[in-house]
Specification:
The chain has 613 residues and is an alpha/beta fold. The protein is built from 21 helices and 27 strands. Strand 18 and strand 19 form a beta hairpin.
């Protein structure tokens, strides 16, 4: 039987605009549509207040000379002002350009200059100063609008912009604003999102109103999120995943949105907000699972035995449910006890009300996914790219297949090419790369199929990601290795924070590992070592041997040619600031390799490895 090569979601959603979704959502008239924390208290913003502030900001931008189609940038952390600025741009029919707040000034320059942004919203004095330092390189930029007073580092505040917009307001002007907003057409450009990618200069992805509108409706059709739900906004809203799912979709469904203060404050925020939904990247779920496991395994013999027993019972229960079978009576009783003794504590730690987690932006370790499922906290893993608005497929409740990224959503088609690349077509596929027609033609075929650059396979309509086309390692012996799944397995070790596999055109692959220093230092003390600093610790021969053993254990079962033969321990985390990660946390392999060139070359210059039997 030939492998499955095509899968389709349900019918294509009717074309529409984000402005239609916005005005329809306002009709719910919730008193706490958005929430943010200030001075220790959570402050609500009603639909009525939000609608007025959006209208005033949009009219304020028009008073400054902005016209439909003008580009307006947005440089901010997650907060209600981000939503106000975004909806003001949409309803004013301007094109907004979100910028990651973590980007340094020299990377912000390209985004603002390439897009020709005439104005920019900034969140803080620090962000205003960032723009001030590059202002001379941005001839099109006329106005900087800050969410807070900046002491002269911005032309005006958002409050002042809104004051401009409400001057002389009448019933007629309010009606004219709404009529203008609803003149937006489904194929009008809504936003340009610059995606850095793992190599090359950032490209502006042009997404229309209907690109995002169709993705909202297609995703909402398979995800049972309802108006009684509440969510905690954590991922950057400048990222397409949070932008569509955590911002537009949640708002359109009447789901209350609370803005997390920071990743560091997440645990406390979850206990305060008690969300029913949370969107996050795999690293967060890995950290939560590791924390639970480490506390149990270091909490004494009894606690360890109870945790291991409960985990085994939960795994049995999950196997039955995922296979579509009803667990037997005895297993059901054991599972209830396991839940009471272990899993209920995990529920409490994440606020006590979570119905669903959603995971995207990178592959989630199937073991981590199964652990949460067995705890009664299902993680709905999906897949997509900025160029696809972003969701292509997602696991839906009641139809979860762990290890896959689910089935295509409504209106979306997925095809596996002869070289195993994932191609997709649908109303969610971008209009193209801004001012890059050649790159657009290379990415999207004449009949609408977008080349994702990812490798995958289909089974019963479920899509599995097997690697990244550009990341494929071809050894000197001609063997092809997809590094991502191997890296994710390596990161399941409690001693590993980050892992990157290299070896293209080399005789054998190697693994670069950033240790989990909390667990490594605990192990070192137990071994009688006295950690002084990370550099000295990873130089210890016993530490290096620990990681060699971990690699051989965690990666047991791989083919010989795809098993890393040596380990390089890296002192510092890979980061956006260091250049090793893109803003959406993807690894830039070329940067990692260049920064660790001396250690890598020394490793390959050493004695040839002995093959594991």
């Amino acid at each position: 039987m030939s492998p499955e090569t095509l899968a389709r979601g349900g019918p294509r959603p009717k074309p529409g605009t984000l402005n239609e979704l916005f005005f329809t959502a306002l009709e719910r008239d919730l008193p706490d549509a958005l929430r943010f924390k200030r001075d220790g208290s959570w402050i609500p913003i009603s639909h009525h207040e939000l609608g007025e502030r959006v209208r005033h900001a949009a009219r304020g931008l028009e008073a400054l000379g902005a016209r439909p189609g003008d580009r307006i940038a947005l440089l901010s952390e997650n907060r209600p002002e981000w939503a106000i600025a975004d909806y003001a741009c949409l309803t004013g029919r301007f094109v907004d350009v979100p910028v990651y707040p973590t980007l340094p000034a020299d990377q912000v320059v390209h985004v603002l200059r390439d897009s020709g942004a005439i104005a920019i919203f900034v969140s803080t004095t620090a962000q205003a100063r960032k723009i001030e330092s590059i202002r001379g390189e941005l001839p099109a930029l006329r106005t900087v609008i800050s969410f807070v007073p900046t002491g002269g580092h911005a032309e005006m505040t958002l409050v002042e912009l809104e004051a401009h917009g409400c001057q002389g307001e009448t019933e007629e002007s309010i009606a004219a604003y709404r009529a203008n907003a609803l003149q937006a057409r489904p194929d009008d450009l809504a936003t340009i999102i610059y995606t850095a990618g793992t190599t090359g200069v950032p490209k502006g992805v042009m997404l229309s109103h209907d690109n995002l509108h169709s993705n909202v409706l297609g995703s909402a059709a398979v995800l049972p999120f309802v108006g009684e739900d509440s969510c905690l906004s954590l991922l950057p809203m400048s990222h397409s995943f949070e932008r569509m799912a955590g911002h537009y979709m949640m708002f359109s469904l009447g789901i209350r949105i609370a803005y997390a203060e920071s990743i560091e404050a997440l645990r406390g925020n979850m206990l305060e907000v008690k969300p029913t939904l949370l969107l996050a990247v795999p690293r967060l779920y890995e950290k939560i699972a590791a924390s639970v496991r480490d506390k149990a395994m270091t909490g004494g013999a009894l606690k360890r035995r109870i945790f291991l027993w409960a985990s085994a019972v939960g795994g049995e229960w999950a196997d039955e449910v995922l296979a579509g079978r009803k667990p037997g009576r005895v297993l059901g009783i054991r599972y209830l006890l396991a839940h009471k003794l272990v899993f209920a504590k995990l529920h409490s730690a994440v606020g006590g009300r979570i119905r669903f987690f959603v995971s995207g932006a990178a592959p989630l370790n199937p073991e981590i996914n199964k652990f949460f499922f067995s705890a009664g906290l299902p993680v709905l893993e999906g897949y997509g790219l900025t160029e696809t608005s972003p969701v292509i497929s997602v696991n839906a409740p009641g139809n979860i297949r762990i290890g896959t990224v689910g089935r295509p959503i409504d209106g979306v088609e997925v095809r596996i090419a002869d070289d195993e690349e994932i191609l997709t077509r649908g109303p969610n596929v971008m209009q193209g790369y801004y001012k890059k027609p050649d790159e657009t033609r290379a990415a999207v075929t004449e009949d609408g199929w977008f080349h994702t650059g990812d490798l995958g396979k289909l089974e019963d309509g479920f899509l599995t990601i097997t690697g990244r086309k550009k990341d494929i390692i071809v050894t000197a012996g001609g063997k092809n290795i997809a590094p991502a799944p191997i890296e994710h397995r390596m990161q399941s070790s409690k001693y590993v924070a980050q892992a990157v596999m290299l070896g293209d055109k080399r005789k054998f692959p190697i693994m670069l590992i950033v240790p989990n220093y909390d667990n490594l230092e605990r192990w070192a003390r137990e071994q009688g070592l006295t950690p002084t600093d990370p550099k000295a610790l990873i130089a210890e021969r016993r530490v290096q041997q620990l990681y060699e053993r971990e690699m051989n254990t965690v990666l047991a079962g791989l083919a010989r040619y795809e098993t890393p033969k040596k380990v390089v321990l890296v002192e510092k985390d890979f980061s956006i600031e260091g250049g090793e990660l893109t803003p959406k946390m993807s690894i830039r392999r070329n940067v990692v390799e260049e920064k660790n060139k001396a250690a890598i070359d020394a490793l390959y210059a050493g004695p040839a490895p002995t093959e594991r039997q």
